[in-house]
Structures are given as structure tokens and as C-alpha cells.
Amino acid sequence: MAESEFFAGLDIGGTTVKTVLVDHRGEVAGDMIEVRSHVKDGFEATFGQLESALDRLTSAIGISRSQVRGIGMDVPAPSCDGVIWGKANLHENWVGTNIRDKFSARIGGTPVYMTNDGNAAALGEYAVRRKHHGGLLLVAPGTGLGGGLVLPGGRAYEGSNGLALEVGHISSPHREDDGTLPTCSCGKDGCLEAWVSLVALRRRIGIELARPENESHPLNDGSPVEEKAFKLRDFAQQGDEMAIGIFRQQGQILGYGLADLVRVFDPGLVVIGGGLAETVGFRDDYMDWIKQGFAERAWPMYMKSPIDPAKTTTRFEWAIGGDSSAALGVAFSAREMFRS
Questions:
Q1: pLDDT in tens, the chain (340 residues)
Q2: Cα–Cα distance, 31 to 71 (Å, whole number)
Q3: Is the same domain home to 147 and 103?
Q4: Distance CA 66, CA 43 (A)
Q5: Residue 277 burial (10 A CB sphere; 0-12, 13-18, 19+)
Q6: If DSSP codes are grouped into helix, strand and coil, which group holds residue 73?
Q7: Nearest CA to 119 among 150, 83, 82, 152?
Q8: 90 and 200 share a domain?
Q9: N or C: which end of the chain has fewer CB within 10 A?
């Protein structure tokens, strides 16, 4: 019976695996369970952790694993039809392996849906917005710049090869002070991620601290640039001029890039995720800078309807799904695909 059906979401990260259960109504059953990730030890080691998490999820609410009728899984790497295409931060034996089918076989044939972590996070943000039925574009500044697009009705747009929505690697025309395009972690020059990411913050901190006017800045303390980058948000929240300048530039460039993405997809709703979504106060300024950059590049009709000026055509919101967002996203997708 449908009432006894449950669906699991398994969010596989480089450090932890976050897992949730939802029931046939789409209600979360029990608490999120988090286990250590073993992705760098190979997919078999990770499978063991996934099974352990499933056992803990089911026992916590008093059901058997056989009542889990479908599983959603996301991986931190490009994949197509269950097969991992790139190593990313995984062990090399993930590449070329049909993770989806191997895991399904290991757990007795329970059907598995698999996507990448950007799509999963976008699906999660869609799932927690119960009253939203249009499109949703997610961008998430973090170590890199991830993203995902959910179409009206709740399906992720993944592309023919599962490679769509690599939003961090669209071209940005912005240049360094010497006129050069910054090099992205992907090896190409001029990517949006080269401006909007933790890696980009580290580069910009080095540039700004080298200026004569910032010689006495507290961050010019000889500490590693990684430490400086993690402190930068606190300085911005305290009103530090250099820190605010770096984040203002990042937010405006992100908004500028979003204008092109919105012109292509017209999602109606743009959700900003990543670490800044969890901050208080300072994030309001960051969102304003995003909107400023967006207004610089976007056509007016992508901001306000020319027919009804009171209607906003592109809304911006912060992510609200929290740590369980990606796991919830794939759990809800499994429910839609595999329920009776």
C-alpha cells in the first residue's frame, strides 16, 4: 500500500553523507542522519556508509528497509545516466562506473535516481517551497560556483549528457586591473567562477592587501590566505571598507552573469545558496549588489512586466533548505518517480 512507502535521499559529499526519508505524502519522516563520507576510499566504501545510513534512517522510525521503495542520490561530480564522468574529489574508481545501477543491485534492486549535487540542491529548494510551481534557478557560491535549474512541475533540467547548468563556467567580461582575464580552476580564462567563489576571494584578497592603502589592514598579518578568506565575511559584517569592496564586486559580477542566464531560461525565481545564505544582516547588502549587477545587464522586461509594471518578472530569494536541501531534493524526486 502507498501508505507504507518511503523514499530516501542520499546527499554524497566529500566530507559527509546527509540522508533523509520522506513518506508517500512527501512529509519528512524522522530526522536527517549524517555519516562520514568515504568517497576518496572508493565507491564500495561509500556504499557501505550509504547502507549504514539507510539502516539508521529506517530503524529510527520503526520501519524495515524493504519499505523504502525508491532512492534519490546525488554525487559531487558530473554524471550521465548513472555513470560518473569526472573524478572531482572522488577516488578514481568512481570514474566510468555506473554508480546508480551498482548501488541499486547491492540493496536488492530498489530503484535509484541519481543526479549531481547542484541539481539536487536546486530540487531541494523547489521542494521546500510548497506553493511555488514555476521554474527555479539556483546558484550557490562556495569553493566553486554551482547551480541547477528546476523546470515547472519539479523536474531538474540536466541536459542530454547530464552536463547542463555549469553556471560557474559561463563567460564573464570582467577583467583584472591589468586588463587580463582571471584564470578559473577549470583552466579556462574569464569564467564567472573566477570572480564568484571562495577561490576567487583568495585571489582578490591578495590583490587588495598588496595595495599601499591596505598595508596596515588587520588581515595583513602573515597568516595563510585560506584563513584570511574565511575571516573576510566577519570583517564585512563589521563594516570594513576593503572587505565590503571585495564582496560588492563579487555580488555585482554574479548579478551581471545571472542576467544572461535569466535571459536564456527565464526561470522567474532565482535562489542564491552557499555559505552567505546562512549569514545575518550582511547578506541583505550582498543581495542588493546582486540586483545592481543584474539591472546593469538585464533587459527591463526581465525585471518588471511591460504590461503590468507592478509584476516582478524575476524574483531573487535566499536558499532556505539548509543542510538537508540536496538530500530532500533527491528524496522528493525519488518519490515522484517511484511511488505506486
A1: 466 899 999 999 888 899 999 999 999 999 999 998 889 999 999 999 999 999 999 999 999 999 999 999 999 988 999 999 988 879 999 999 999 999 999 999 999 999 999 999 999 999 999 889 899 999 999 888 999 999 999 999 999 998 999 999 999 999 998 999 999 988 999 999 999 999 999 999 999 999 999 999 999 998 999 999 989 989 998 999 999 999 999 999 999 999 999 999 999 999 999 877 676 668 899 999 999 999 999 999 999 999 998 999 999 999 999 889 999 999 999 999 999 8
A2: 17
A3: no
A4: 23
A5: buried
A6: strand
A7: 150
A8: no
A9: N
Domains of the chain: total: 2
Under DSSP, the state recorded for 281 is: S
* Contacts (Cβ under 8 Å, ≥6 apart) of 254: 139, 141, 192, 195, 196, 290, 293
- Considering the domain architecture, whether residues 208 and 333 belong to the same structural domain is answered as no
Residues in the chain, overall count: 340
How far, in Å, CA of 71 to CA of 62, rounded? 18
In the DSSP assignment, the letter for residue 180 is P
Q: Do 169 and 186 contact (CB within 8 A), yes or no?
A: yes
> Strand, coil or helix: what is 108?
coil
Angle at 43 between CA 169 and CA 97, to 5 degrees: 65
The parent domain of residue 37 ranges over 2-129+323-338
* Residue located via cell numbers 554525487: 75
For residues 14 and 37, the answer to whether their CB atoms sit within 8 Å is yes
